Amino acid sequence: MKINEIYLKHWYQTHKDRLAIEQYLQQHVKKPTAPYMQQVAIHCVRLYGGRCRAWDSDSVLRGNFKQILDAMVSHGFFLDDRMKYIMQCVGSQEKVHPSETGVRIEIHDQPARFL
């Protein structure tokens, strides 16, 4: 069951942009009253459109997911990004209208199941 969902407007490319992601979260995403204390699974969805094309399946989380997750820890969603708090991170991508591009982060209380 999905327990939270976050939309970001950009997929940043470098570690130095972590501060920009943190600033974006501060301005656009309500700070949690408390961090998640149970283990969660994270589904990161790259929303691409226009002239962009799908990345290879092994590249979906390579972008700057680490900086996004670090910014979420800093923003108060998690105490830390260790396995104790985040049991799984899965990436996928969806083609959307160019005005809807960005990154969607879903937080689930169950890991993803693969066939």
Q: Key features?
A:
four-stranded mixed beta sheet; alpha+beta; about 120 residues; about 20% helix; 2 helices
What is the structural class?
Answer: alpha+beta
Q: What is the topology, as strand order, of the major beta sheet? A: 1-4-2-3
Beta strand count: 4
In the predicted model, the low-confidence regions spanning at least 5 consecutive residues are none
- Please indicate the percent range of residues in DSSP E strands (runs of 2 or more): 25-35%
Summarize the SSE layout with pairings.
Blueprint (H helix, E strand, L loop, with lengths): L1 E7 L9 H11 L11 E9 L16 H11 L10 E10 L6 E7 L7
Parallel strand pairs: 2-3
Antiparallel strand pairs: 1-4, 2-4
Helix pairs in contact: 1-2
Verbal overview:
- 19% of the residues lie in helices and 29% in strands.
- By secondary structure, the chain is of the alpha+beta class.
- A four-stranded mixed β-sheet has the order 1-4-2-3, with no helix packed on it.
- The radius of gyration is 14 Å and the shape is globular.
- 17% of the residues are buried.
- The mean pLDDT is 87.
Quick structural gist:
With 115 residues, this protein is an alpha+beta fold. The chain has 2 helices and 4 strands; from the N terminus they run E-H-E-H-E-E.
